[in-house]
């Protein structure tokens, strides 16, 4: 089965050239196997939200509360991201995030809406809600991205909560790490790395967001994929959105989320696009020790997710009909890789 698949993929690649941007998506492409996944039919125009990892379940709940309070897809994203940023027990987002090798918690986040507007902050410290700061950059400045001290200054000007984010738990982990100082990004960090979120509201507007403290014990000043538009997140209101989790260097080198959306533009389903973006990484670099997972939401409401290694999961919430309760599922994208 695996070798038949590989043969088919090779043939498909030969037919479609490099399968890169500009190439026509090969319509004969088959869906990769989705072990452990219950395909869920999402009707166009019905609100849907999907977010990476276990913490996506609570994030999606918060997103739908924002929607039910009259909010938009963008409000769903901000509400979901803020909830996870507030969790001091989470070691990879917001307060409680593991620090860099010098003991500083530095945060990255970005947000995008259906019009292609984007806002981003990177290398920020002491800002409790980088997702909201990114939204302010998008909505209230002429810029897309603010970094470091300038972003922190803007947060203070906005009157945002500014507070030390290194918790006792994260400090103890860092002190233990210093005993060896071995930099080794962890695959599927406790099953809840970076949160990437994608939503479509009842009016069919798409939005996305991404927020993280980045890889633990990184060099001071390192910025990952999460605040980079096109890498950690990309949204095209006419096509769909995509977000990434895992080792940012691999995502940035392949401009992963933009790639996923461009593949969908060429006709790939959300699932096929995530699958192909993972192959792009696998073809470009050794992947034994690194994990990347992609999550995509098409304008048609269909969701896909795929990762290099098993262990990646994501949460999916949607309205199952007018007035019906929101259906929530945690999807195990446990088939990783090829
Ligand atoms: N994906 C998060 C990071 O690499 O920083």
What do you see in this structure?
- The chain has 9 helices and 12 strands.
- With 338 residues, the chain is of the alpha+beta class.
- It has one domain: (Glycosyl)asparaginase (Glutamine Phosphoribosylpyrophosphate, subunit 1, domain 1, 4-Layer Sandwich).
- Strands 4-3-2-6-5-1-11-12 form an 8-stranded mixed sheet. Strands 7-8-9-10 form a 4-stranded antiparallel sheet, with helices on one face.
- A hairpin with a 3-residue loop joins strand 7 (233-236) and strand 8.
- The longest helix is centred in the C-terminal third of the chain and has 15 residues, at 270-284.
- It is globular.
- Mean pLDDT is 84; it is low at 1-41.
- It binds glycine.
- Glycine binds next to strand 8.
- Residues 194, 212, 214-215, 224-226, 245-248 line the site of glycine (GLY).
Keywords:
single chain; alpha+beta; Glutamine Phosphoribosylpyrophosphate, subunit 1, domain 1; four-stranded antiparallel sheet; 12 strands; 21% strand; disordered N terminus
Which stretches of 5+ consecutive residues score pLDDT under 50?
A: 1-41
Count of DSSP strands: 12
Number of domains: 1
Helix content: 25-40%
Quote the beta fraction: 15-25%
List all distinct small molecules, including ions and cofactors, that are bound in this structure. Answer: glycine
Molecular shape: globular
Averaged pLDDT, please?
Answer: 84
Instruction: Let me know the largest β-sheet.
Output: 8 strands, mixed
CATH superfamily: (Glycosyl)asparaginase
Number of helices: 9
In which order are the strands of the major sheet placed? 4-3-2-6-5-1-11-12
Quote the CATH topology.
Answer: Glutamine Phosphoribosylpyrophosphate, subunit 1, domain 1
CATH class, anyone?
Alpha Beta
**Order of SSEs, N→C?**
HEHHEEHEHHEEEEHHHEEEE
Radius of gyration: 19 Å
